Amino acid sequence: MSQITVLDAVTAFADFIEPTDAELSAIESEMPLILADVELIDAQIIAMDHAPNDVDARRIRRALARVLAERAKLTNRTASMTPAGGAA
Which of 4, 9, 28, 65 has CA atoms 20 to 30 A from the CA of 43? Predict the structure, then answer.
């Protein structure tokens, strides 16, 4: 009877562990939105650290506007890449 080690089990699927080129491309195209989300979260964390003020409110509004703009860009880019047509 042969023994299967954890190393054998993991390395058997080594080719499937790494992201594909298509997955890396998708992540790269979403990176501006991801960074905008991080900026919004940072602004919210800063505002929670002390009593809210006008600067915090502007920072959050600006970050939220950037998130919405990046989300719209990504949606438009994705919509333009999908083939035309559909079910009749």
Answer: 28
With vertex at residue 74, the alpha carbon angle to CA 70 and CA 79, rounded to the nearest 5 degrees, is 150
- Per-residue pLDDT reduced to its tens digit, 8-21: 766 666 666 788 89
3-state secondary structure of 4: coil
Give the Cα separation of 40 and 9 in Å (integer): 41
* pTM of the entire predicted model: 0.69
